[in-house]
Design the sequence.
């Protein structure tokens, strides 16, 4: 299984998690302990040295701000805007990447003509495109969706191409020995063979989508979590900034979890290989 | 087909006449292209219901021969004539060295691969045949399991069943037991004979193993490499049904010795 592009979206909050090897033995408990310890030390240092709240808030300050923001609904509203941008942008990227991957793997001409161009466009940092997209599509949701889609597109494309080309040549011979046409081979072999790779792409892209939406909101927005980060930065409400980071990390984790879950359900035949690399 | 040879008493299932296959590989940019004669003037007639093995060292063109028959590789020269007419004529069932099951399909659905491609039977009938095939293979309780849950021998049995579900005119087998351990291998050979005795399909069986070829076949085609050609065809006139106990008989040993001598003399001649 080629899971070279596997991402490891670990919690943003807290210190680096312990090594994977070690974590497998006592499992999530150890992670929880480390998290609590780190947060306690953080709390202690902030309180003990009287660190100004506009510099680094204590975990309890962040929690308070988070609860405030959630109860008065303002953070939820902004989170919903960002989530929409992420999901629509991701969906768009998936559709475009699968279509391109299909065309590139089915036609040599398209492969030769299109693929180098696509690689060339990858040398442009997509983040640099965000201001242009704002100029073209305004500060509404469209520019955010497109920035997100642009950022998520390439890893999806590469993985889908890799996947569609991963079918075992002997399996192709096997199907052809039964008189299979190209469409049969595609349907019965190449597409199922591609699924594990496509899901690996999903996993990378879904996390990149969160980045895409936030960056686009930084450039110009009137709502969304990126906008809240900028606004609270301006008013020195650092606790709220941290609260937004917590929400973003929760969104990232949830999306990653959904991808992993779908992967196990849909690509069940390669589940054994994956559970050894994913944590249990 | 329509020519004189088919009017002989035992009708052939397939006949190869002076078949050549030459691979030309261009190595890097410089240097002359490398030419490999995988098949050199191969002529062979296989009768209906006959079990024919092809033995020979690696690179003697055994597998190429099957690929040419399947149409997966184009022959350079020569003729291949199948008997029969219409749809059935070119219908060949191939069993590969690896089971090559689709891991996302259950055993039953793997058996139905040919049906999904060709839609030859009404769905209900195809399912019924698949159930019957599972029974014959002794895999009834594995109908809804996935290939990963099966042992290597069981997987290869499904591979054979899949080829038989294709209802082939000729069953082609390319070292089908090569990847199995010795014990399973013997057992599979016996299973194959049992299945074969039942409906006497024409079988072309490629193997490395001389005893295996003698145990299973009516005739053994001995091939030699560079160029890949037929050195001789040995008749195996041991009575059927055969079992593993045949291996210890002097007649059996004699035929094995003949084939081995043939292969050795051909090897040292080059």
Sequence:
């Amino acid at each position: 299984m080629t899971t070279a592009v596997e991402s490891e979206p670990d919690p943003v909050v807290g210190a680096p998690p312990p090594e994977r090897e070690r974590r497998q033995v006592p499992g999530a408990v150890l992670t929880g302990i480390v998290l609590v310890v780190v947060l306690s030390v953080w709390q202690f240092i902030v309180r003990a040295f009287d660190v100004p709240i506009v510099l680094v808030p204590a975990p309890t300050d962040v929690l308070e701000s988070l609860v405030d923001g959630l109860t008065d609904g303002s953070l939820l509203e902004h989170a919903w805007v960002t989530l929409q941008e992420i999901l629509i942008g991701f969906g768009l990227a998936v559709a475009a990447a699968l279509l391109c991957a299909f065309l590139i793997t089915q036609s040599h001409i398209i492969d030769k003509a299109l693929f180098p161009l696509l690689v060339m466009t990858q040398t442009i940092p997509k983040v640099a495109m965000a201001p242009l997209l704002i100029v073209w599509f305004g500060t509404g949701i469209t520019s955010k969706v497109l920035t997100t889609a642009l950022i998520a597109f390439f890893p999806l494309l590469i993985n889908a191409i890799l996947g569609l080309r991963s079918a075992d040549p002997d399996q192709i011979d096997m199907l052809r020995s039964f008189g299979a046409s190209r469409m049969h081979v595609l349907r019965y072999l190449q597409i199922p063979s591609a699924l594990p790779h496509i899901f690996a792409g999903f996993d990378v892209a879904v996390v990149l989508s969160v980045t895409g939406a936030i960056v686009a909101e930084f450039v110009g927005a009137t709502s969304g979590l990126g906008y809240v980060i900028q606004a609270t930065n301006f008013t020195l409400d650092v606790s709220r900034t941290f609260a937004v980071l917590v929400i973003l990390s929760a969104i990232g984790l949830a999306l990653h979890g959904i991808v992993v879950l779908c992967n196990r359900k849909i690509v069940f035949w390669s589940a054994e290989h994956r559970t050894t690399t994913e944590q249990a | 087909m329509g020519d004189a040879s088919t009017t002989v008493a035992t009708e052939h299932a397939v006949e190869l006449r002076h078949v050549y296959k030459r691979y030309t590989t261009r190595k890097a940019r410089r240097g002359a292209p490398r030419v490999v004669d995988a098949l050199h003037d191969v002529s062979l007639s296989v009768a209906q219901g006959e079990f024919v093995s092809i033995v020979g060292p690696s690179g003697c063109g055994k597998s190429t021969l099957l690929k040419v028959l399947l149409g997966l590789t184009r022959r350079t020269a020569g003729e291949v004539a199948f008997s029969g007419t219409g749809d059935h004529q070119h219908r060949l069932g191939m069993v590969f060295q690896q089971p090559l099951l689709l891991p996302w399909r259950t055993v039953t659905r793997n058996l139905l691969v040919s049906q999904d491609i060709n839609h030859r039977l009404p769905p209900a009938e195809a399912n019924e045949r698949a159930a019957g095939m599972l029974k014959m293979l002794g895999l009834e309780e594995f109908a809804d399991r996935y290939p990963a849950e099966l042992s290597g021998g069981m997987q290869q049995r499904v591979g054979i069943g899949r080829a038989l579900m294709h209802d082939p005119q000729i069953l082609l087998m390319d070292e089908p037991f090569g990847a199995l351990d010795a014990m399973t291998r013997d057992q599979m050979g016996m299973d194959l004979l049992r299945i074969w005795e039942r409906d006497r399909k024409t079988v072309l069986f490629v193997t490395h193993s001389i005893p295996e070829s003698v145990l299973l076949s009516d005739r053994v085609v001995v091939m030699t490499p560079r160029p890949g050609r037929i050195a001789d065809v040995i008749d195996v006139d041991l009575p059927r049904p055969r079992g593993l106990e045949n291996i210890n008989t002097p007649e059996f040993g004699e035929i094995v010795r003949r084939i081995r001598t043939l292969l050795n003399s051909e090897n040292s001649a080059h």
Notes: Confidence is low (pLDDT under 50) at residues 1-14, 273-280 of chain A. Chain A touches chain B at residues 168, 170-171, 173-181, 184, 188-189, 192, 268-270, 272 (CB under 8 Å).
